[in-house]
User: Fold this.
Amino acid sequence: MKEMICICCPMGCRLKVYDEESPIRVEGNTCPRGAKYGAEEAVCPKRVVTSVVRVNGGEIAMVSVKTSDVIPKSMIFDALALIKGKTIDAPVGEGDVIVKDIFGTGVDFVATKAVGKSV
Ligand code: SF4
Assistant:
């Protein structure tokens, strides 16, 4: 059994995840999202990853990016290496794909805000 805190919303429910059982049983969740989170966290923890990328010719020098969905925690450092040192040209639109299909996961790095050209 593993104990963990659900991070899906600010309530932070304390979960007990019986991962030795099949199917995995979760207690302490207030809603179904917590049961799904607990079961996945016990087997293959996943996270949304955020970072920044340099913008050439932009009204600001950097744009924040995030993964379009969760990726396995074990991939986080390799995923960040994909965008380390990367630069993109302005203008950038919110939701623009910066890196497509990270390691075949079907998840992209996308811009979280728009950056116009510098004047
Ligand atoms: S179990 Fe539901 S209510 Fe509790 S923290 Fe997770 S998402 Fe929020």
Q: What stands out?
A: The helical segments are 32-43, 76-83. The longest strand covers residues 50-56. The first helix runs from residue 32 to 43. The mean pLDDT is 96.
